[in-house]
Every structure is written in C-alpha cells, then in structure tokens.
Write a structure and sequence with these properties.
By secondary structure, the chain is mostly helical. Helices cover 79% and strands 0% of the residues.
Length: 397
C-alpha cells in the first residue's frame, strides 16, 4: 500500500500514535527509580510525592473537554504526544527534586491528555463490530514498542555505558520527531459526529462508571502491591522484575489481538464475567502463595487479564450517544484515577499489618465487578444499557 493511502486512514494514525507513546513512556518508567536515587538522592518521601503528582493530571483528565473548546481532538492528541516527548527528553537535564517534579508533571499532563483523547478517537473512528479486535491490535503494538524500548535501553546503557541524560534525550527526541512527522503527514479526519463540549455525567452510563472505578482500583493493587510482593517476600532482583516485564509484554504482543477477537465473538458480558472470576482466584492466590515461581506465573496471568478490560470500553461504545464519547472519555479517566489517588496510601497501611489482606480486598473489588458484569446485557445498545432493559424488550415483543 502506498504511503499516500496509509495516511488517509484514521486507524493507521491510531496505530502510529499507539507505537510512539509506549516507546517514550517506557523509557521514563523503567529508568525512573534508579535515576532519582542515583542522581537526585530521592528517599521514599520524594518518590511518593512524585508518584502522587504524576497521578494528578489523570484525576483531572475530565478537563480535556474544556481544552477541546479551542482545539480539535486529533490536534490535541498530537500536541499531547509531543508534550510527553518533551517531558521525557528534559528529565535527564534536571536531576534535582524540584526539577524532577516539574518534568514529571509536564510528561504526565501530555500522557494523560493523550490517553483520554486517544480513547475517544478510537471509539469514534472505529466501527463497533471491529473495535474489540482493533483495541487488541493497539495493545500488541504498544507491547512491541515497549519491548523495543527495554531492549534498546539495555544495549545503550549496559553495553555502551550511555548516561541517563543521553538516553532520556534520545528517546524523547525520537518521539518528538516521529510525532511531528505524523502530525504533518496524516490527513485531518473529520469527526463522524460533532462532540459535546461540556462535561457530561448521565444516569444511564452509571454501570460503565462503576466498572471503570473498580477496574482502576484493581489495577492499582497490581501496579503497586503485586510487584512489591515479588521483591519483599521472594527477594526478586531488578533483573528478575525486568524479566517479568519482558514476559508480560511478549504475551501481550502475541495474545492481545486474539483477546480482542475473543471479545468480539463472545460479547462483553461473558468476557468480563470470565475476567472477574479469574481475578478473584488470582487475588486469593496472591494472598497465600509461598512459591516464587507460582507467584511469577500469577503476575504474568494478572497482567494478561488487563487486555480483557477492552470489553468495558466496547460496552460503552455500544451504549453511548455518539456525541457523548469525547466528554465521557475524560470523565471515565478521572473516575479510573480516583482509585490511583486513594488506594496506594490506604492499602499501604493495611500492608504493614498483614499483606494478605490487601489481596483479599482486591478479590472483593473483583467480586463487586463480577456482580456488576451480571447487569450487562448480551447485546448492549443505546436504550439497552442493562440486562433488565433487554429482558423488558423481550417481554414487550
């Protein structure tokens, strides 16, 4: 296919952006802990503040709808990607507490605005019957970009002794160049439906909001405490954790698109019930596991189950009024990050008393999600947001 034809398809723009973001964000993430300790003398206090600051733009993602009063969604996605790249490129040049707080906020604003708008554009541009499979492809592309980033970091820093500053600058610079290139190359795609430019909270979307909240809570337990368990209880080294990350991304690379097809074939109700039953069992297993290899297997399976969360987004796409997608994407991102602000601090105190309780609480979150999944109709649509609506339609027929 010729280049001119490639840049005429919105799906190709989504795939290109999906490659660039993890390529630069993975570098920021994988180098952060070593960089802040070695170069900025961070303690637990400073890294805690930095991570909290990083989540604030996610909590405020709903403000993206107000930015859209002045700029089109596609341009905001490109601009946000560029801001993320600039934040990553600048990180190595400011090895101080306040310098890292500032560069982290720059990076995080770009990252969270991009993720919000990118989700909205995906749900608008991709046909409903193809969305699940396409989102699986996006996850595969993201996994491939992350693998490329991890392997290149290892090559540059371990084999050629590159500095943190040079590595951050290289990937941030490459990301910025790629972003400018796609921004200039791709056609500006007109929205199929003009999006509402006001904050929207609708009663009929309540199930989507609830599923999103519990999904965010469960993700925080995995991100914060599952990895911590590996280190504290089983003595995993940095190399061991890195290996787990690589395995996770390899699995996503191979299986994410297939999971998307699985969702398209069996529907959101079945897939989410399957995911939440798996999560209940996983969290209970985390609480009692005593073997390091079984713990590693649980960690990989847990990460793979992230891909099933695509079903929450495709459920929303089917029930949403087309003009509500952009606004609700921002709202849902903020709801997802409520847990990010609260869960780590609260469960950190629980962890000190008994770490197993943290995972039993995670199992409780998964059980709540399972109960909510029972309310999803077999064939979601506008006006058929709940299973009870579906049953009512059948009775009327």
């Amino acid at each position: 296919m010729k280049f001119n034809q490639l840049v005429q398809k919105p799906e190709n723009l989504l795939l290109a952006m999906a490659f660039i973001m993890p390529l630069i964000f993975s570098v920021w993430m994988v180098l952060l802990n070593n960089f802040v300790i070695e170069k900025a003398n961070f303690t637990g206090v400073e890294i805690g503040i930095l991570q909290s600051l990083r989540e604030v733009p996610g909590f405020l993602a709903f403000t993206a709808i107000y930015v859209l009063l002045f700029i089109k969604e596609q341009r905001l996605a490109i601009l946000s990607l560029a801001v993320t790249a600039i934040g990553v490129a600048a990180t190595g040049y400011f090895p101080s507490v306040y310098g890292l707080y500032i560069t982290t906020m720059i990076m995080s604003v770009g990252f969270h605005y991009f993720e919000t708008v990118n989700q909205s554009l995906t749900l608008q541009w991709v046909d409903k019957d193809k969305t699940a499979h396409f989102m699986g492809q996006l996850l595969s592309i993201k996994a491939a970009a992350s693998l490329l980033a991890f392997s290149t970091i290892w090559l540059l820093m371990e084999q050629f002794a590159w500095s943190y500053q040079a590595t951050y600058a290289l990937f941030g610079g490459i990301g910025l160049i790629f972003t400018i290139f796609i921004g200039l190359s791709f056609t500006h795609f007109k929205p199929k439906t003009e999006q509402s430019k006001k904050l929207i909270l609708k009663k009929r979307y309540w199930l989507f909001y609830a599923l999103t909240f519990f999904g965010g809570a469960r993700r925080q337990i995995f991100v914060v405490f599952a990895g911590f368990l590996m280190v504290e209880k089983f003595g995993y080294s940095v190399a061991d954790i890195s290996t787990l990350f690589l395995i996770n991304y390899i699995f996503n690379w191979f299986f994410a698109a297939k999971i998307g097809k699985f969702i398209g074939k069996f529907g959101e109700r079945f897939v989410l019930k399957f995911e939440y039953i798996g999560l209940i069992l996983l969290f209970c297993a985390y609480a009692v596991v005593s073997n390091e290899y079984i713990a590693a297997a649980l960690y990989v399976i847990d990460h793979l189950l992230f891909a099933f969360a695509i079903a929450i987004k495709t459920y929303f796409q089917k029930i949403a009024s087309p003009e509500d997608i952009a606004s609700t994407a921002g709202v849902s991102f903020s709801i997802n990050h409520i847990a990010a602000v609260v869960i780590p601090a609260l469960l950190g105190m629980v962890w000190i008393i008994n770490s197993a309780w943290v995972f039993y609480i995670g199992a409780t979150f998964a059980a709540c999600s399972f109960i909510l999944a029972l309310l999803i109709p077999y064939s979601p649509a506008i006006g058929v947001e709940l299973r009870s609506h579906e049953l009512k339609e059948k009775v009327n027929i």
